[in-house]
Amino acid sequence: MKIAGHTMGTPEYSLEDALRLFKKIGLDGAEIIVQDGYRCALEEKTSTDTLRELSRLAKDLSLEIPCLTPYFSRFNDLDEGIREKEIEGMCKVITYAEILGAKYIRLYGGNFGQDERDEDGKKRGCLVESLRFLGEIAKKHGVSLVLENHFNTMTVSARESVDISYAINHPSVGILYDQANLTFTGNEEYETAIPLQFDKSWYVHVKDFVFRGNDHTFSSSDVSHPQEEERKVVTRIVGEGILDWPAILQMLKDRGYSGWLSLEYERRWHPQDIPDASLGMKQSAAFLRKIIRDLK
């Protein structure tokens, strides 16, 4: 297994300096955000020259770029114009991934609030159609799309993620396994989630947290992150929270997983919870490396 840093964890850094930090703390790669308005990210309209310069820097640092993470989500919108705009943005990111040698792109499984209903299945149908189309584009560019287990989407749980991925039924569309998201939304624990979605789990996010109190009811008004007043958890350095990462990684290894573990260090959203990545991401990576060494 290889360990990547996620640029969510480096809001104080330029993208180039984040890559240098990842190299310094011994990481193998970088998962890079694609979004306007965030310092440590690629812009949604990035020039080929900029991408090639970044690719050269990564190679000079002996870092891989395994995954790009855009924030398009409305692939299930009933408004065709909105869907087409999101798809257009994703198509650009697919070309960026090819230039950078990134094999994966993180996807949201649509935008679907906790109180929304889809009784006639139209939103699900739009999502499946959109992602099947994007899967075909991705395939032509040698890229795979991975649907994250994520709140306020149509892939919140492992069961939903599996059902959607098989409905899409495309060889270039799989799942991004995120146990922290599953746990704090009250969905499957790892003993259930890993066997359920393993055949489609191609990429893994690693983070940690503790609950603030006895009320574990999850709520978020936004697809990307809960607002501070909505939060029932506190982000932690990996190894200092409640997730049993030794057991999770052992189960993944036992089933044959040898891919990427991406440290989704949430300093962008919750800087009050965790220290600078030079400290907290470094400690998280050391914790993961020890687990990997000790796997049976």
From TrEMBL:
SUPFAM superfamilies associated with the record: Xylose isomerase-like (SSF51658)
UniProt cross-references to Gene3D superfamilies, sorted A to Z: Divalent-metal-dependent TIM barrel enzymes (3.20.20.150)
GO molecular function, one term: isomerase activity
Record-linked InterPro entries: IolE/XylAMocC-like, Xyl_isomerase-like_sf, Xyl_isomerase-like_TIM-brl
Domain Xylose isomerase-like TIM barrel: 20-290
Keyword terms of this UniProt record: Isomerase
Pfam family, one: AP_endonuc_2
Protein name per Swiss-Prot or TrEMBL: Xylose isomerase domain protein TIM barrel
Protein's organism: Sediminispirochaeta smaragdinae (strain DSM 11293 / JCM 15392 / SEBR 4228) (Spirochaeta smaragdinae)
Lineage, opening ranks: Bacteria, Pseudomonadati, Spirochaetota, Spirochaetia, Spirochaetales
